[in-house]
Amino acid sequence: MKYIKTSILVLLLCLNADLSFGQSSPKSLRLFIIGNSFSQNASAYLPNFVKEKGIELTVGRAELGGHSLAQHWAYAEAAEANPEDPKGKPYKGKSLRMLLSDGTWDVVTLQQASYLSADLESYSPYAKKLYDYIKKIQPNAEIIIHQTWAYRSDALKFGRVAPNQLAKNQQEMWEQSRGAYHAMAKQLNVKIMPVGDAFYAVASDKVFGFKKDADFDYANPVYPNLPNQVNSLNMGYSWKDNKMAFDANHANEAGRYLGSLIWYATLFKESPLNMAYVPNKVPADFAAYLRTVAEKTIKNLNTTK
Q: At residue 185, does pLDDT exceed 90?
């Protein structure tokens, strides 16, 4: 079996899980996301979860691939200077103000671009400027920080921790990005969705953590063979047009599931252990383990504030 001792481990984790989540989840929510492909990944299964629970969810999006806080702010600034300037309307021909002004939003999320997430200096002053901008348009909206994740342990390079300096490995990228996100949350006095913590908890687990396949010939791959990538939360290796591609950054189905569990638990104050939906490509045993990780991650965040 792929997951040795899984049932016993999951049972023990479930018995020790903290179920002290709020009992009064909202029946509807209007959520606006400012981010990029990582926010798309991490919120991928929210529609499935809310459907399961009978919750009405409306999602607005200002997401552009690879975009940082600085870039989102630059677009908003351009639109404020000249509402007709195309540079201020990168979101399918609309500005951030136009999107935020579309009704009343209950929650607005912010995040840094993953490559810059471990560089604290990259957050300032853009996080505060975006926060203030959102509050002027949606004064009653709750702003929540989406803590993104570190790249897979076998990534060819990791995110920036300072100008001209990259993280040495997955652990350093996670530690530095976690510190930066928490500093941002403290400055703005907002809460965090700890997706990055959940990803690293899995990656560093002795049983479930991804381990690079040492037996695969990466220099001379033969189609359609791929390395063993069991328990990976990232896309990893795949074949495209008879060439082997590698993406150590974006989330695969398991990673999207874990991220969505954290988002759902944060937004609706409900235990991830209560979720029944599992994507087809995520093995049931691994999914059960990921639910316990999400539960424990939320618990740890709440007890270390």
A: yes
- Domain hosting 87: range is 27-197+254-303
Regarding predicted confidence, which is higher, 191 or 13?
Answer: 191
Q: What is the pTM of this model?
A: 0.92
Q: Are 227 and 237 in contact (CB under 8 A)?
A: yes
Question: CA angle 18-23-28, nearest 5°?
Answer: 125
Query: 3-class SS at 11?
Result: helix
Q: What is the DSSP string of 40-65?
A: HHHTTTHHHHHHHHT-EEEEEEEE-T
Across the chain, mean pLDDT equals 93
Identify the H or E element spanning 103: none
Do 109 and 32 meet the contact criterion of CB atoms below 8 Å apart?
yes
pLDDT at residue 16, rounded to an integer: 42
Q: Which helix (H) or strand (E) holds 126?
A: helix 126-137
The CATH number given to whatever domain includes residue 77 is 3.40.50.1110
